[in-house]
Write a structure and sequence with these properties.
The structure is a homodimer.
Chain A: E1 2-4, H1 7-14, E2 21-25, H2 31-41, E3 47-51, H3 71-81, E4 85-87, H4 91-94, E5 102-104, H5 112-115, H6 119-134, E6 138-142, H7 146-158, E7 164-168, H8 188-193, H9 196-209, H10 215-228, E8 232-240, E9 253-262, E10 265-274
Parallel strand pairs in A: 1-4, 2-3, 2-6, 3-4, 6-7
Antiparallel strand pairs in A: 8-9, 9-10
Helix pairs in contact in A: 6-7, 9-10
């Protein structure tokens, strides 16, 4: 495995390769990231993992300063997983001048966008830049960051990027808590409470699947239960999988998404669901 | 020369070519465009000219509807110039879905940006899309659209696009009017008046070169003279060539830019200038 820090080194390392699969990360890797690398390997070309904590996607007061930087441990995990190249640029390599050009994505006021102004513009901008630096044939993203994945798929289409996005299911701990670098911020009491977020999402998803259609009531009941257990809930919302907007009558494929805080730690999670389609009357 | 209308045909036509030079146009070609094609040919690789009247860069009330579409004549000129491929997509090929992702450029409230809200976001967005469709090694732009060229160079750097931008001097008629598709809108009386715009820019540039430093006075005097001859002046402004902002004391390289209307026709032009540097005291 090669570790490179500049675009020039990366281009040299990739010379002669016309296809690569990119796994963009912010480091502090866990099994969820390794699953992304394994998904990338199924594409049958060299795998590049990028490690870059992107200042542009953090708001004032967010955890940019103490976001965990663990490059040596990350590289050990990646090497063990059979990753080919690690691209770990520093901030001046990615932003040698003020980034006055940004990607302006839609849904900026929806879901996490409403609580993290500028976050998705920062994500889309850095991902576009990484795409142009690495020029991969494939790029792999997890479903845990559902709104991010939705936006990156749309950006790839709308900017005509010749890249195929591969998606991965969320990896979970034994108690179903979604794996996340931010889980490391939780106290042991918070860690014990944390699985309730997914449990409530699942409860809403099951109710929808079985035919309940009062979205607002389901959302409010789950939000209340979380609050009773000490959560501050940014949102818990049923959305159309096609638009990420509130479902219309025509939508039968939904995703239930939530962001909520335990103490200072903000966790997000989601679950896809849909109304069970009626059995077709022919075999 | 091949004429293609879709990205799929274009990719097929380019199969095996790893380097091309792109000349993006909106058609209605004149000698200024052909000079861009000739510049592209000096790069020594196949030349792709794109022809696309981009709705995203026209504001309400602008000339999108009657912007001249002259594909057959354009193709004849391009073939004559030795262009290799013409890429002329229709609107649904470029925008198969609503373009909810846009490039947000800086300087949106400066110069033409102040008078054409959303124009440069539309330009940058379509150029990024064309870059991704064609994936050229080089792209050629004229200096007549100076703010556009400035922004596209910055976008290319800041989005890490692996494309070299080549620039061309403005082509002028014998009376120094900058060649432009929009000159065709001018009545014969307006056409006779039109060279005054560049004459005033030149007057400001000459004054600056000879040491005058009261920018505001020069701008106001030239603006007044244009108004006296029936022009409506959007702006006439001395700017730093490095920033396109009003010059600071440190700036010694300037560009004088103007946009002004004769009747319903809006013309733009510019001229680069700088203070003559003092002769160095050694040979």
């Amino acid at each position: 495995m090669r570790l490179v820090h500049s675009v020039a080194e990366l281009r040299q390392a990739l010379a002669g390769e016309d296809r690569t699969a990119l796994v963009p990360t912010m480091g502090n890797l866990h099994a969820g990231h390794i699953a992304l690398v394994e998904r990338a390997q199924t594409a049958g070309c060299p795998v590049v993992a990028s490690i870059f904590v992107n200042p542009l996607q953090f708001g004032p007061g967010e955890d940019l300063q103490h976001y965990p930087r663990t490059l040596a441990a990350d590289c050990a995990q990646l090497e063990n997983a059979g990753c080919d190249i690690v691209f770990a640029p520093d901030v001046t390599e990615v932003y040698p001048e003020p980034q006055t050009f940004q990607v302006q994505p839609p849904l900026a006021d929806e879901l996490c966008g409403a609580f993290r102004p500028g976050h998705f513009a920062g994500v889309c901008t850095v991902v576009l830049k990484l795409f142009e630096m690495v020029r991969p044939r494939y790029a792999v993203f997890g479903k845990k960051d559902y709104q991010q994945l939705f936006l990156l798929k749309a950006m790839t289409r709308q900017f005509n990027l010749d890249i195929e996005l591969l998606e991965c299911e969320t990896l979970r701990a034994e108690d179903d808590l979604a794996l996340s670098s931010r889980n490391g911020y939780l106290s042991s009491a918070e860690r014990a409470e944390a699985p309730r977020l997914y449990a409530e999402l699942k409860r809403v998803a099951d109710a929808l699947r079985s035919g309940t259609s009062n979205f607002a009531e389901l959302e409010a009941a789950s939000t209340d239960r979380l609050k009773q257990h000490g959560w501050q809930v940014d949102y818990l919302s049923v959305r159309s999988r096609n638009t990420l907007l509130p479902p219309t009558a025509a939508d039968q494929e939904w995703v239930v998404l939530a962001a909520a805080r335990l103490g200072a730690t903000r966790l997000i999670d989601n679950i896809e669901t849909g109304r069970a389609t009626a059995q077709k009357p022919w075999p």
